[in-house]
Structures are given as structure tokens and as C-alpha cells.
Amino acid sequence: MSKLKVAVIGCGSISKHRHLPEYHQNDEVDIVALCDIVTSRAEAMQELYGGTVYTDYEALLKNETIDLVSVCLPNALHAPVSIAALESGAHVLCEKPMATTKEEAEAMIEASEKSGKTLMIAHNQRFVRSHQKAKELIAEGAIGKVYSFRTTFGHGGPEGWSVDGENSWFFRKEDAVIGAMGDLGVHKADLIRYILGEEFTDVSAMVETNAKEGITVDDNAVCLLKSASGVIGTLTASWAYKVNENNSTVIYGEKGVLRLEDDPDYSLIATYTDGSKVNYELGKIQSNAEGKQTTTGVIDHFVEAVLTGATPLIDGQEGKKSLEIILAAMESSQTGKNIKLS
């Protein structure tokens, strides 16, 4: 069987560290095209992985026969480029947040349905072993009824990771639209929905820009969430954790507590009301730090979904539900009101 032809649009850090190496390691695909408005970035990736270099995604989609497209661009471009790729007949893996408005997300889903092509959103936290194990434990009733949670994603900011450093698009409202909440908060919104297997009905938040000078997006947020069954908890996203990254989640239930990515040695610790405790060593979570790059599982899952015709774990509808929590948090902060989600 011939290999699937891949194009990666946007050759910044997420492509360099995640998408391209993971496509390269997958035997089912060939990287045939790379696109970036900065030619040298695409050429640097071409030296490693081959493929034709483009600076215009429309020219790429017109000139190449592509099976799979990764959209690794600033948030404001996620929807238009994903829609164009779907309409060209390609399956699309789009970075998170999938879009910057509910309407954009719906247009992406519609383009996927119309074209009959797969749309997947790259929420990699669902593939972390500790997160998957916690979901299993909760589903089988190990900690009984879940009462509350706290989930956090914070680090020193994208300047240490983004290809443009302090001049990164992440800090500009016209490109990013949403700051730390779009970068980190949406990960945790998706994760807590996944682990609990529940949707959220109420969102209240305080979203601030109080840590970085000269940026036009949020960099610190604390949100209160309530689920359909009445589970309440906090979601925190921050670019102001300057010493240590925090990517932890703690879930409190009637029979025990699950601590995920909250300990240096054990990725999941389950402590029960009967006095028992289980420490799980399930491998390290993804980190942006040098030397800590592990395979996310996102690319392999996307390729397999396309090959088998299965619905991916995070399709457009799933991406949209996670985005809506973030959009509600932004609205809550602006209006000072609790926002109801349908």
C-alpha cells in the first residue's frame, strides 16, 4: 500500500519538536511538503525530513496531492487554513485551540462533514498514561462519587519555547486572540472533560494580564467549573510559573484521591479512605524542556484513524466543547458573571 502524503503548514516549535519527528517515525506516511512564511524555517525542516518548501499554504494545497495536513499556525489561522485543507480533500490535524470562536469551530466541523475528511484536534494530554489510567479508575468506581478537582497548567511562558522568543505571535492579540488560556487552559479543559467523562454547565473566571510587560493577551487565569452532575473544581492557566512547570491534576472522591503528575517520582498516586495507597510509574508527561521530548501519541492516533476510518479521540465536536469552556471563561472575566454552557 502506498504511504499517506503529509504536509505540515507552519514550521515553528510545535512542528519541529512534535509533528515532524512523529510523522518521520511513522512508517505509514511520507512528508512531502512544508510551509512557512519564513522560508528559512521550512528549509531547516526540509534538510531533516525532505519535502517541497512553500511559503503560501494555498499554493501548497493547489500544487500537491496531500492526504494529511498538520495545521501548526497561530490561533487566528487555525480555522481558515484547516477549512481550506479539508476542502482540498485532505484529512486535517489542527493544533489547539481548534479555533478562536464557536462559529469558526462550527465551520471547521461543517467542512469536515461536507468533505468526508477527518478533523482531529491535537489535545495531547488525553494520551498521557497517567491521565488514561485515572479515567479508567474513575469509570470503574475506584474513588466512588467524584466531588471536586483542581487542574493546573503553568510555566514561565512561550518565550522559552516559541521559535520567535519574546517576539512570539503568542503575545499578540491579532495572532493569538487568546493567551495562556488558549495555550494552556484549553488543554486542561479538554483533559478534565475526558477524565471525568462529563460536560460542564457553569464557568466563572478571573483572567488577567499581570505578569508580562507589553503583551496584548492574558497570561494568568483562575476558573471555577461545575459539571452536569455537580462536580466543582478549579482550572488554572499561567505563564507566570517562573521556577517550575506545573501540569498537575488532583481529583477528590468519596473513596479516595487521585494525584496526577503531581509527584516527581510517580505519575499517578491513588490514596484511599481505607488507608491504602498505590503509586503508579507510568512514564513522564510531555514537557517543552530540552531533553524531555517524548512521543505524544497524537500523530500515530491521527494516522491510524485515517487508515481505519475510525473517529479520532478528539474530533471537531470534542475540540469545540473544550474551546467553549475557554471562551466562557474569557466572557465571565469580562462581564463578571457566571456563564452557563448549554
TrEMBL record:
Pfam families: GFO_IDH_MocA, GFO_IDH_MocA_C3
Position of the signal peptide: none
Record domain Gfo/Idh/MocA-like oxidoreductase N-terminal: where: 4-123
Molecular function via GO: nucleotide binding
Domain GFO/IDH/MocA-like oxidoreductase: 131-258
Coiled coil: none
InterPro entries per record: Gfo/Idh/MocA-like_OxRdtase_N, Gfo/Idh/MocA_Oxidoreductases, GFO_IDH_MocA-like_dom, NAD(P)-bd_dom_sf
PANTHER family: BILIVERDIN REDUCTASE A
Stated name of the protein: Dehydrogenase
Organism encoding this protein: Halolactibacillus halophilus
